[in-house]
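note to self: dont lose this again. the chain is below, predicted strucutre after it. 321 aa total, dont forget to put it in the shared folder this time
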Amino acid sequence: MHINNEIPEYISETPMSITLISVNRYAPHYHENALEFVYCLSGSVDFTISHEKMHLNKGELVLIEHKNFHSISSSEDNILLIIHININNCGHDSDIIQYMYFSCATELCKPYQTVRFHDIRNILLILSYLYTSKHEHDTHIYTNTAYRLVNILVEYFTWFAIEDFVSEENKAFKERLTRILAYMQKHFKDKITLSLISHNEYINENYLSQFIKRTPFHSFTYMINYIRCFEAEKLLLTTDMSIQDISDSCGFSSKKYFHKYFKFFWGTTPLQHRKLCLKKAELLNEIYILSSAEALPLIEHEICENLVKDYLSDNFCYVTL
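---
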């Protein structure tokens, strides 16, 4: 038993899939080449996304990155809008996008991201309306909108997201971090040192060390070992390789260090994580896929509700619904 790579059913000649579902249980799975937006239309659900847990209520949104193992569960009625975007056809170089880290969720949204976050929400709802209403429209609408969504993510929702997006200094910081993350993900099996990265970036080691302290990783050691643990999780859940072989394949100097950092980031040992996820994967999914006729009234209601909320928020800030 291994965890499956689920390939979305894309709308013909587009990089996008749109589905509305109700979930009791959705076993662990991942999408090798697809970003996944999930918007909760009603009820609430619980996610496990790699090493993180998240609760999603009505009106809340989360982005699940490609290659991230995730599962969904709920004990109450719910309806989720799920939109996938193929990163191999998203208007950006896939060799860059596949190495970027994004952070886009209602509970993680910072004040200066709010406007763009609402843009994403509105775009998802409009797409779902077009799809379920079966209006006659060119498939380029889906393709161009997928490009727009990814542009918003790249500009505003990477792990290094800052308020001053136009500053040349911050643009350079973001570009440097993107290069470093890409290099580490491409070469995680190899010995990677602070000296090597500083040489690649034409800066001294002390400057690089201070640079990494400003990132979500805070240290060079945490950065490279997080990346190795992320890669190790895929081998844990999609192969029968031994823990020792996975440790060796992912560039850890010993199995001891693999255990240490995996437990630090994932909160459990590699073997315990494998056993728990594979046990969940044995359970049958309990998912109901809504028809367009069932989904359309819900989408129309959600769009109207959000329009009213946005208007009241913009014009009468003291009014709540």
